[in-house]
Amino acid sequence: MNEPTPQQNGRRFLTSFIVLVVATILEVIYYPDIATTIYSLFGGHGGPGSSIGYFRDIYVLAGAVGFALLAGIALWTTRKSHWHSRLATILAWVTNLTFLTASVLWYFHSIGTASRYGGP
């Protein structure tokens, strides 16, 4: 099998990165709805509460920016090898979904713990 040309490698990097960034932006914008859906898939009940906007603006947005930067670096450094580029893209998507799910579970665990805390 022939190796892709540098132009094809560049297009593949750019396409993969743009799609990943757009998906990440949409995840941040629609985080409350996505979080509620993911939480219900894990058997959770109830709404996200009023603090989910703050959580999205502080934690999710910062995590998304950091993820996009690291994913961009990983995709850029692997752009010359078709196999490594494909592996980096797959790992970036798996990492994206893992971070999204982990942030949802962390958020709902935190608000559950806070609601059970009776205070002094």
Q: What order do the helices and strands come in, and which of them pair?
A:
Blueprint: H1 6-29, H2 31-41, H3 52-77, H4 82-116
Helix pairs in contact: 1-3, 1-4, 2-4, 3-4
Account of the protein in words:
The chain is mostly helical. Helices cover 80% and strands 0% of the residues. The chain contains 4 helices and no strands. The chain is elongated, with a radius of gyration of 18 Å.
- Which class of secondary structure composition applies to the elements? mainly alpha
Number of helices: 4
Number of domains: 1
Query: How big is the Rg?
Result: 18 Å
Order of helices and strands: HHHH
Strand content: under 5%
Whole-number mean pLDDT = 87
Number of DSSP strand runs: 0
Uncertain stretches of 5 or more adjacent residues: none
Helix content: over 70%
N-to-C span: 69 Å
The major beta sheet can be summarized as: none
So what's the overall shape? elongated
